[in-house]
Amino acid sequence: MVCWRKGIGLHRGTTEKEFERRVNEYLDGRLQSTSAEQSDQHDSESDDAGETPADEDKKSKPKYSSQQVDEAATKLGLGETEYRLNWMPLGGYVKMLGQEDMSTETGEVPASQRHLSFAYKPLWQRIAIVAAGPIANFILAAFVFWVINIGYGVTGVVPVINGVVEDSPAYVAGLRTGDEILAVDGQETIIWKQVTLK
Questions:
Q1: How does pLDDT run across 141-184, given as a tens digit for each residue?
Q2: Alpha helices in the chain (DSSP H)
Q3: CA distance 86 to 4
Q4: Which is it for the CA torsion 111, 78, 80, 23, positive or negative?
């Protein structure tokens, strides 16, 4: 599997982990700079006697909102779309913002990202996006069949006469043993099947 994402480039496997790592490093750096200022005040006011290691772990790994992640990705120049080419299933796909559940409830997609969201696109654009995949598959199939036909051509028996009975209509018309039928009614014949279908 090969993926590409703006700001990360071509990547073997998914770019999701690298995307998350870069965004989290950026947000952690911003959080540390603001928390350093607040830690002096917090240390003087708090009592650590009642805290467990699980509480400490929760504090050390903050969760970021989708809006914070989107803003960080924009500042870092990271694209929101991951283009992927898979071996199984053969082919590729694009996962778009807002396509996960097609919900347009307020708050699920940040207002700043709604113009990019699949769920907020006009109906004609959603139809075009959904139809693009099957149309591309149809064009690919036609191209593959064309290449196979060009590569292997038409197979069959060459229309050469093996024998002609004397005084038969074919003999009277001038056909002789070994003659090749090149056309019937002006249409080229390459194999016997084309002669018998004319």
A1: 999 999 988 888 777 888 899 888 988 998 998 889 999 988 88
A2: 16-45, 53-60, 66-76, 123-152, 169-173, 192-197
A3: 12
A4: negative
**For the chain, which residues make up each domain, given as ranges?**
2-121
Dist CA 117 CA 109 (whole Å):
8
pTM of model > 0.70: no
Distance CA 72, CA 95 (A): 20
**CA 166 → CA 174, 180, 192, distances in Å?**
11, 18, 22
Give every CB contact of residue 175 below 8 A, 6+ residues apart in sequence.
161, 164
148 vs 139: CA distance, rounded Å:
14
- Evaluate the CA torsion angle 168, 174, 176, 180 in order and state its sign: negative
Report DSSP state, residue 115. G
CA distance 179 to 160: 6
For tokens 């090749």, the residue is 180
